[in-house]
Amino acid sequence: MPRHKGDHHARRRDVSAAVWRVLATYGFGGLTLRAVATEMGATTGLLTHYFPNKKDLVAYALTLLDEHRAAQPRRTAPEGLAALRAVLMDTLPTTPQAIADNRIWVSSWDAALADPDLAAGHAARYARSRERIRHHVEAAQRLGELPPSDPDDLAVAIQSFALGLIVQALFDVEEFPPQRQIRLLDGYLATLSTTAGDL
Amino acid sequence: MPRHKGDHHARRRDVSAAVWRVLATYGFGGLTLRAVATEMGATTGLLTHYFPNKKDLVAYALTLLDEHRAAQPRRTAPEGLAALRAVLMDTLPTTPQAIADNRIWVSSWDAALADPDLAAGHAARYARSRERIRHHVEAAQRLGELPPSDPDDLAVAIQSFALGLIVQALFDVEEFPPQRQIRLLDGYLATLSTTAGDL
């Protein structure tokens, strides 16, 4: 029954779009079956077919975030420090879209911290992100652009800097216009690259 | 009527303790009048005398967090880089108490991002925190322990590093035992202090 299947996919897209709009407007704290239903002009009963409980809805929203992020265009840059900078530039809230995406991510931490399964999922996400950063760190080390300190620790430090800058910039958009975020990032990378000591 | 006043203060302490327990268990996402009432063995109706709406409850919880943090014992250290390190050590989730406090803080970002007034309050909190860090940065610069780069940018970078490390450590306690957090912090400070270039 292809028609029915098509309907099902179309409905699923509607649900995804409604979940996304609720997240963008209210964050994870406002993500409820009722809010998604209202956004769709549907009943809460319909939504429970998709999400038997709140945790399913939150887990689905996190999957949507992963897909949304994976679908974003990426800067390209030569291997090494330039590629590392490109990865970090892609994460900073320097555009309205990146601000919206980062607000949703940061707001997911509350829900994720309150549930061991979701927290484990976030831990795995950040471990993968550090792994990507480490890959670029090791390339930069081979090129002599970064000192030969522990690449795991260096990846943690770099991810720390980026996450912390994102949080501050989200709360104080005026204090952290795009050009200041970029200046801070470049200053941080310059600090790393000119350092001879251990990180 | 001193007895009545005493009752009022005792009740207020009960409310504060219940709000704190709800935050510690469920984060801000689970902070509702109903949850606090249940925790107190009281009615939701009683709670509405204290908090006419959800936003009042969240704002009160943030005030409690400020008070709780201000009441924590502080490490003392000589002026300069050592004092800066002490301030950062006080914030890292290296003890069960510091983990619990940081979980509550990070979970507050969702609620705060969803409300302009609360977001402005958080922006002011982080601005004050950067100001404290900048004070120590300038002292370290006078002592020649840090390079004479822009102290405002340096304070942002240092706060970024600490916030981002806190987030990663909260999600992955096994990956970030206290000794690794401290090693990462000391590595970061060493990077700053041995750098001759601009930050």
UniProtKB/TrEMBL annotation, chains A, B:
This protein's UniProt keywords: DNA-binding, Repressor, Transcription, Transcription regulation
Say if the entry is tagged with keyword Transcription.
yes
HTH tetR-type domain residues are 9-69
This protein's superkingdom?
Bacteria
What Gene3D superfamilies does the database record attribute to this sequence?
A: Tetracycline Repressor, domain 2 (1.10.357.10)
**The entry's DNA-binding region:** 32-51
- Family annotation (InterPro entries): BetI_C, DNA-bd_HTH_TetR-type_CS, Homeodomain-like_sf, HTH-type_TetR-like_transc_reg, HTH_TetR, Tet_transcr_reg_TetR-rel_C_sf
Ranges annotated as spanning the membrane: none
What is this protein identified as?
AcrR family transcriptional regulator
Q: What is the lineage of its organism?
A: Bacteria, Bacillati, Actinomycetota, Actinomycetes, Streptosporangiales
